[in-house]
Amino acid sequence: MTSIIGVGAPARPAEAAAAAETLGPGGPTEATHGAGPADARRDGRPTEARRADGLAKARRADGPAEARAADGPAEAARGGGPVLRLLAAARPAGGRLALAALCGALALGSGVGLMATSAWLISRAAQHPPVLVLMVAIVAVRAFGIGRGVFRYAERLIGHDATFRILADLRARVYERLERLVPAGLPDARGGDLLGRLVADVDAVQDLYLRVLLPAAAAVLVGGASVGLAWSLLPSAGVLLLAGLLLAGVVAPWLSATASRRAEHRTADLRGELTAHVVDVLQGAPELVAYGAAADRLATAARLDDGLTRASARSSATAGAGAAVTALAGGLAVWGALVVGIPAVRSGRLDGTLLAVITLLPLAAFEVVAGLPLAAQQLQRVRRSAARVFAVLDREEPVRDPAVPVALPEPPYTLRVSDVRARWTPGGPYALDGVSLDLPPGRRCAVVGPSGSGKTTLTAVLLRFLAYESGLVTLNGVDLSEFAGDDVRRVVGLCGQDAHLFDTTIGENIRLARRSATDEEIRDVLRRARLLDWVETLPRGLDTRVGEEGAQVSGGQRQRIALARALLADFPVLLLDEPAEHLDVATADELTADLLAATEGRTTLLVTHRLAGLDAVDEIVVLDAGRVVQRGGHADLLARPGPYRAMWAHERRHDDAPC
Amino acid sequence: MRPFDPRLLRYARTTRAYLALSVILGAATAGLVIAQATLLAGLIGDAFLGGASLAASRTPLLLLLAVVAGRALVAWLQEVAAHRTSAAVKSRLRGLLLERAVALGPRWLSGERSGELATLATRGIDALDAYFSRYLPQLVLAVLVPAAVGARILFGDWPSALTVALTLPLIPIFAILVGLAAQRRMDRQWRTLSLLSGHFLDVVAGLPTLKVFGRAKAQARAIREVTGRYRTETMASLRVAFLSALVLEMLSTISVALVAVSIGLRLVDGEVGLRTALLVLVLAPEAYLPLRQVGAQYHASVEGLTAAQRIFEVIETPLPRHGARTDVPDPAATPLRLEEVTVAYEGRDEPALDGFSLVVRPGETVALTGPSGSGKSTLLAVLLGFVRPDAGRVLLGGTDLADLDPDAWRSRVAWVPQRPYLFAGTVADNIRLGRPGATDDEVRRAARDAFAEEFVDALPEGFGTPLGERGTGLSAGQRQRIALARAFLRDAPILLLDEPTSGLDAESEAAVIEAVRRLAAGRTVVLVAHRPALADLADRVVRVEGALEAVA
């Protein structure tokens, strides 16, 4: 196994199967397939998001992703709707899927066959023939009786197997694509919502194969065969059966869908308002209670809830239409068969023993359309998920590797940035607008400036996450864009504000930087990151798990683990991007000092908006709106008036006082 | 899991009427099924052996048409009733849930719980739709239809009835036996599967980090491998899990096949008539169908009942005791005294607050400082009555806070939390939170005092601008100033502030500090302060030392 991020990830509570869909548009239709996740539990398949991060998050993730899915010009350019593209993804398991569909059809067909053969058997038996005449039918009836269960079993096993194969492939392909996009191609993915949603969507699209494709294929095959059988016995009976099946399989689901969409549309505002109130009451409870406003809010929520209940009740009459039409279609098909069959028997066009067959055939055949309404709902959901997935995957790659990359030069390394301009979106504003910087071996440089001044963009360019548009970045004199990105990142490393801790042990998280590192080496970098003392107080030491997204360690500890990891990787050039962000001031300053001490002698670029501790670096570059507005040493910059001195004065004013 | 939770009847009375209606409709369904089979058998028999014409079959054909219409009507009524019932039950349970959650208080609701309950109260509770519309009626049918159909078959042909009677009970028995065994396996498998999904998410979320360390490309293979390995393992257990469905399908179809073959053979011998044989053939599958469908709807029941049970759990959580005295001493004349207050949170070794004592004199401003995690916020929660001390007490003059009615006490307190929550509603609504009756002028004055008037006026609709999730986004500093305006308008003698300047830029910070300075005048103030500039406002700085964080 090549992954350090082993399989031992801790259980993510499956409670929130609903969270992914939380409060999206969609009431009753969506609600009826609340079945999805639980069904999965039964079937043992992963579906849906199981990130229970609460509503607000799900909702936030919803908005932008949905919006993009809607306008997705890239998608149109590639041709084919999202569902078709998903179908293309099934090709590796196509044979298995076809086999599963065949088994599904045979299972349904056995049910129809059982009824048709039994009907003939009994009719023929009524003529008191020698038993031998019935032998074939008796064997067939028994075979159909057994076949149904066996084929169903085979269908489910083969179908699940195929789906898992497709999913493995799909996940890997999504990952490979993301690998090229992240992080600069997905600037909106920083909070993690987009990616969480994407992962959930990838898991959700597998429903297309298992819950849409297979039932639909079986329904078409068996429905067609039943109609064919009826038609061959009595053409008019075949036509009636076809009409009935279409009514139940196409018109009824369409009616249900329309009714629920209408109802949904009517209640959407009410639902939204109620949801906002529910969230407010629960998440704003402290303020409501403290200000004595809880009773008031509860009353408002109750009033909205009543309104929604009344509105739902009003739409209930149409909600039942689909079920009524299905029942009616089935009954009418049987009735119609009798109406055309009875005269046909009298006139001799239909053998008397076959009257029961054409009459009872519809009774069994209608089972094939029973699963279609659910499949139609699943299709809607899959389409939404797939559109979101492709909207992300179709984005422009922020950096392209050269066809023939230049080999890495020998150390020591010198990075030189001259007059570079770069931006995150084509046509957008320049985040870096003519910046120059020299990083000869051993140089320690700090980049400061207000947020949005281009500091993080600079690190992205140096890491080859983001291409620059003009100017030049060179590594030992060679244009950075002539190297493979992975090679550049062998030389230039990052310890950033959003360093991800994987859900495994402290030791494994650090070992990510070098697989072969011994425990002793890991202890050594932890010591340099000033975290060893703490780790050694832990009962399980290096084997302590950090929890999901590092939830079990504090912000400061998390940054120090990330620093230890960066130190272990031993990058010749190390970028530290706001490593002390999200920490309180005292902790932040302590960490910054430790960082600078731990990286002594290494080529370092520290990006920060706090100035404390910067007397330890060789050069400070002050950025504003993508341009260098000042540069020099700490003392030097303080000596003359300018933005640096103003920032420093401001920082001191707020820090000066005992705390 | 039991198929029905009697608490549904207790908490949502609508359920009773619905159950009763479902039984009536179920009985009607059983009757219509039997009538349809009888009419079909008669019509086919007469036409086939008796050579009856269409004209001769007119009456039974019309009756059959009526039965078909009747079944459609029943299906429609069932859906309509289910729709109305689930809407009413959901509304009722949601109301009970919200009421209880608020009564249980902010401390109980803190952390992930408020998010989880919000999901439960909105989307989670929708699982009841399927429970009411598909599972419950099917459950009723599963009891009524097999019994009625079985009786009708017995009446016509007892050997067939015997076959049905012998095999029918096997379905629920097998379903339970196989289901239980499979369930255990599946639960285990489900856990590993969610791990698998978690693994994928973890890797995707950490992609930038993996890229930095040159390990991103290798992970694609790992994902394929891990998913592939889980496929193998999962398929092994699915082979067993799907056996339950296999057994159930087999039982029901083989029984029908047995009935058909045996009655066919007895028909040859002339032991039964064609009509009876056809009747039995049409009815036999109907006896098994509802039971099979109940099984198929099993997940709908689990989803719905799980949601309902989680709600019941909340509704049945006992409320904490609290005092009832409403004669709150005047805080402007009475000192606030904390005596050896200790608070320990469940699941933590060290108490959040350990024997803390403090006296705050009327009109005094006390700043609390100390490392994060030392219990400063807990202290404010104790003063707000959100948390009861596990030991020690809080006295207002001679009155123990625990003896006071919490709402009466809180009406003397204004509180500005670290990250104020803005509610759906206008800016003015949000400021009015603590005094719904305040006039527009009073709201405006409070906003002015909190340095909020200027930016509020600059909003598209001024004080009428909607806020909250779907409203205009405000910066942290602006949110903070709205919260301060709330406190100004509340005009309470005691003011509790929790790091009102954390995470603010310099300009906002200066404005907030100035607003706090104004607000503190003439009030008793306890404020948690990280930043020295804020602590400067205080008459006295008290350092809180709780359980210390080890590093950072």
If you had to describe this structure to a student in words, what would you say it looks like?
The complex is a heterodimer of chains A (659) and B (552). In chain A, 60% of the residues lie in helices and 9% in strands. Chain A has helices at residues 28-32, 35-43, 55-71, 73-78, 82-89, 94-125, 131-181, 193-204, 207-233, 235-283, 285-290, 294-314, 316-319, 321-347, 355-365, 367-370, 372-393, 455-462, 485-491, 506-511, 519-528, 532-537, 555-569, 585-598, 634-639, 643-655, and strands at residues 415-422, 432-439, 444-448, 470-475, 478-479, 492-496, 573-577, 603-608, 619-624, 627-632. Chain A has a 6-stranded mixed sheet, sandwiched between helices. Chain A has a 4-stranded antiparallel sheet with strand order 2-1-4-5, covered by helices on one side. In chain A, helix 9 (207-233) runs antiparallel to helix 10 (235-283). The two termini of chain A are 50 Å apart. Chain B has 552 residues and is of the alpha/beta class. Chain B has 2 domains: 7-157 and 272-315, Up-down Bundle (ABC transporter transmembrane region fold), CATH 1.20.1560; 336-543, Rossmann fold (3-Layer(aba) Sandwich). In chain B, the strands form 3 sheets. Chain B has a 5-stranded parallel sheet, sandwiched between helices. In chain B, strands 2-1-4-5 form a 4-stranded antiparallel sheet, with helices on one face. In chain B, strands 7-8 form a two-stranded antiparallel ribbon. In chain B, strand 9, helix 18 and strand 10 (524-528) form a beta-alpha-beta unit. The radius of gyration of chain B is 35 Å and the shape is elongated. The interface between A and B is large, with 210 and 182 residues.
